[in-house]
Amino acid sequence: MNSTKTDVGAMTAVELTRLFAQGVLSPVEAARAALERIARFNPDVNAYCHVDETGAMAAARASEARWRAKKPLSAIDGVPSSIKDLTLAAGMPTRKGSRTIDSPLAGVVDAPFSQRMREAGAVLLGKTTTPEFGWKGVTDGPLTGITRNPWDVTRTAGGSSGGAAAAAALNMGVLHQGSDAGGSIRIPCGFCGVFGMKPTFGWVPQWPASAMTTLSHLGPVSRTVADSALMLNIVARPDDRDWYQGAGFPTDWMDGLDAPLAGVRIAYSRTLGYASVRPDILARIDTAVAVLAALGASVEETDPGFDDPIEAFNALWFAGAAKLVDSIPEDKRGLMDPGLLAIAEAGRSQSILNYMRAANLRAALGETMAAFHHRYDLLVTPGLPITAFEAGRNAPEGDPNGNWVHWTPFTYPFNLTQQPTATVPCGFAEDGLPVGLHIVAAKYQDQRVMQAAFALEQALPPVFPEKPVVRRAG
Asked: By CB count within 10 A, which of 7, 53, 185, 258 is most buried?
């Protein structure tokens, strides 16, 4: 194969490692291609807040030697990858998007996710941007500024894993770590047109624990479902540092990925019974669902039967924000995002009875969804009711609430229930911006989500931007 660096920069993990094994391509070439793309594209989108070129090239050279000796550490050995800047990675600073963390010194400890990736031989390129402490559904903040959408740099990339999603869309690295406590993987993946998976809670160990505790999941962001499956094979493994970790981990996330959809029972809910979705987005979702039916799935249009749980979610979310802000020295709080301080104050002022009511509503929602999945293997919905809006805002212009949760009604319910969910790109809206289909399964049925996402991806191959662009309607 005669690969140019541009070709290498557009490859998936599956493609790269196949060529590594054949001796046709080197991890050093792949790392250089990724770093060159970062140098070209990052000024326009601000996906990375830290790039470790020296560390990445050293890791790539070590990987090259292993592949030459035919002793790779894993199926992602040598693949260019990134870590979100909420997650510890030895040798890199962890600033969490906050000016309150004023030491630029590199960390000396890997979180479980970073450690597993490093043990597998992945080439860690650097840290991707996040809003301050990952508190909202867009990626901008006082430390790192605005992360922009590769499909239109005047629009938001979404958040809080906006840096990871923007990097994936432009293949500034191939495998990216995200985190999701209310939609923070699925929102930016939907806005940027890439795949993102929120596994069942506890299957990807998280340490130190998130301020949002049992709402927060770690997972992969990538261009393809298969690449995310490769990544989950590495990171979805026990780690005793995570007190909340699960059990019964899948042995191989690639297993059954290409299984036919015949006999799979899918419930299609266009609104969950309470959301308002733009008609052009619904048209894209309708088409994607029709594809799933044509592939053999049994599809029935129905709602899962719960009311909008936003008040319960906000009670838990705001309490987590209050705990987080209270851990910051008082003299530094003036450096923080005012929006984060506002929800922290709301969390601080609520009663313990209100918090416990929210916990009870959460339990009831989990029971409702568990019963629902006795009848249906999967629930599919729109990923988002809108496409990416103007960058630098917490909500679309004219939104009466101003709170990010109000414009992402399909994501946060399934953080409350801890279910596996994914967003898979399924085309573009009338404004030329990406639309994603949201797929939900019962707890521990993650591979059903991956199976449906893979089938849709094969039928509707995703399209990615060649470079950061400005795309306007009409």
From this structure: 185
Q: Taking a C-beta distance cutoff of 8 angstroms, is the pair 156, 397 a contact?
A: no
From the candidates 114, 184, 228, 269, give the one annotated as an active-site residue. Answer: 184
3 is catalytic: no
pTM for this prediction: 0.97
Q: What are phi and psi of 434, to 5 degrees?
A: -65, 150
Q: At what angle do helices 225-235 and 446-459 cross, to 10 degrees?
A: 150
Catalytic residue, candidates 63, 81, 114, 160:
160
Extents of the domains making up the chain: 5-459
Q: Are strands 123-128 and 80-84 parallel, antiparallel or unpaired?
A: parallel
CA dihedral 183, 449, 428, 287 (to 10 degrees): -130
- Look-up: residue for tokens 């906000």? 314
- Over its C-alpha atoms, the chain yields an Rg (Å, rounded) of 21
Q: Which of 103, 96, 173 is nearest to 129 (CA)?
A: 96
Tokens of 217: 């999941």
84 is catalytic: yes
- Compute CA distances 442 → 13, 295, 366, whole Å: 28, 21, 10
The question of whether 184 is a catalytic residue gets the answer yes
Query: Which residue in 26, 63, 81, 84 is the catalytic one?
Result: 84
pLDDT in tens, the chain (474 residues): 334 434 799 999 999 999 999 999 999 999 999 999 999 999 999 999 999 999 999 999 999 999 999 999 999 999 999 999 999 999 999 999 999 997 666 778 999 999 999 999 999 999 999 999 999 999 999 999 999 999 999 999 999 999 999 999 999 999 999 999 999 999 999 999 999 999 999 999 999 999 998 999 999 999 999 999 999 999 999 999 999 998 889 999 999 999 999 999 999 999 999 999 999 999 999 999 999 999 999 999 999 999 999 999 999 999 999 999 999 999 999 999 999 999 999 999 999 999 999 999 999 999 999 999 999 999 999 999 999 999 999 999 988 887 889 999 999 999 999 999 999 999 999 999 999 999 999 999 999 999 999 999 999 999 999 999 976 544
User: What is the third-level CATH fold of 5-459?
Assistant: Amidase signature (AS) enzymes (3.90.1300)
Q: DSSP letters of 221-280?
A: EESSHHHHHHHHHHHSS--TT-TT--SS--S-TTTTTT---TT-EEEE-SSTTT----HH
Nearest one of 299, 243, 295, 245 to 270, comparing CA atoms: 299
Nearest alpha-carbon partner for 417 in 394, 385, 383, 445: 445
Pair of tokens at residue 29: 């070439």
The residues facing 266 across adjacent strands are 299, 378
